[in-house]
Amino acid sequence: MNRYPCSVFIMDIRNSSLEGKGKELSAYLNKITSWLTEWTGNQAIVKHRRGDEVIFISEGYASAYAAAHFLSVCWTKAEHPPYFGLSFGEVDSRAADLNVETWIHPLMKQAREANDELKREGAGKAQFAFRLRDDLYETQLLLNSLLEVRHTLVKDQTDLQKKVYTLVEIYRQQRKAASMLSKSPSTISSHFKKGKGEELVMIFKNVTAVLDSIEHKAFDDSSTDKLITSIRSSLQSSSSEWFSKREGDESV
User: Fold this and answer.
1) Which of 99, 148, 169, 221 sits at 20 to 30 Å (Cα–Cα) from 198?
2) 62 neighbors 95 (Cβ within 8 angstroms)
3) Are 225 and 36 in contact (CB under 8 A)?
4) How far apart are CA 152 and CA 98, in angstroms?
């Protein structure tokens, strides 16, 4: 039987039942699904269903987390933050060939359980949660602990620190962030450090490295780096869709 590495996220958004927001949020989620499809070269299953839910299934143990990470980084609906239940493991078909409406698999159940747990906990604890098979419980515990720390760091950022981190994470250049925000490089460096940007970069790097390492033990290769490059390239070419230098930035 063929075996393929696969990962899943089930995404919901908070406060989606606010009056008068339905059409706006639905249009935004449709745009998100288009981004995900473009990022993966149409090689993933992306489904917007059940109002505010998006399901993503892709090849590779780290692909769902990487895609979810960048969605959270460039998310523009601050009143409606997303949260992601995640899982990864082996499947017997390529991700792009699966039918999400009929596919019954432990990965979907695990991602759903993780998503439901985040829903019950509310917005205060974490934005991401993994649920894995029993023999990976220790990995699940460590990943989720790290992602809770990530959430705390992001929550403590000021508006300007969030913008700086977003731009540096996507462009990987502080000078580019300085240019886009009309700030000096020293100001950008200061806010990147104060906003714990270095720690957030490390967390993303280490989580994806762990997932890739687990995948490499069962499979020959990983496409995570290629996916991350594709995501960054796509976001850089469509910055008008997620970046706005609004009035009201902090004085520095």
Assistant:
1) 221
2) no
3) no
4) 36
Terminal-residue alpha carbon distance, the chain: 60
> pLDDT confidence of 43, banded at 50, 70, 90?
confident
Structure tokens at 165: 């981190």
Structural Rg of the chain based on CA atoms: 18
E strand or H helix that includes residue 45: strand 45-49
Q: Rounded to whole angstroms, how far apart are CA atoms 149 and 127?
A: 10
The residues near 167 (Cβ < 8 Å, ≥ 6 apart) are 176, 177, 180, 181, 243
Q: What's the residue count for the chain?
A: 252
Q: Is 1 helix (H, G, I), strand (E, B) or coil?
A: coil
| pTM attached to this predicted model | 0.94
CA 73/CA 167 separation, integer angstroms: 9
Residue with tokens 């996220």: 9
Q: What contacts 120, CB < 8 A, 6 or more positions away?
A: none
Task: For residue 47, list its beta bridge partners.
Answer: 55
Domain 4-133+220-241, second-level architecture:
2-Layer Sandwich (3.30)
